[in-house]
Design brief:
Elements: E1 2-5, H1 6-11, H2 13-21, E2 26-30, E3 33-38, H3 74-83
Parallel strand pairs: 1-2
Antiparallel strand pairs: 2-3
Length: about 90
């Protein structure tokens, strides 16, 4: 892993980014103390999809909770909240 100081990074940013683009990781140092890493971005960040647990209901079969029985005007509540910031 290549290590560069902050001043060197500022002076040679394009070169450092070319190195990262080619797959190299760069550690950024502040007075010999590592403070950050510049790493290449993976081609595709994919989310793992797992199968539902055995016996779990289908997503469209999960029962929803009953609606709350509160009589609140949501628009009025939002208006009051936004007026408090002015």
């Amino acid at each position: 892993m290549k290590q560069v100081g902050i001043a060197e990074l500022k002076a040679h940013l394009s070169e450092c980014l070319r190195a990262v683009r080619s797959g190299q990781t760069i550690a950024v140092l502040d007075r010999e103390t590592p403070i950050a890493q510049i790493v290449p971005i993976a081609e595709r960040a994919t989310l793992p999809v797992r199968k539902p647990a055995r016996g779990a209901p289908a997503p469209n079969r999960v029962p929803l909770p009953a609606p709350l029985k509160i009589k609140i005007d949501v628009v009025e509540l939002l208006f009051e909240e936004r007026q408090s910031y002015r």
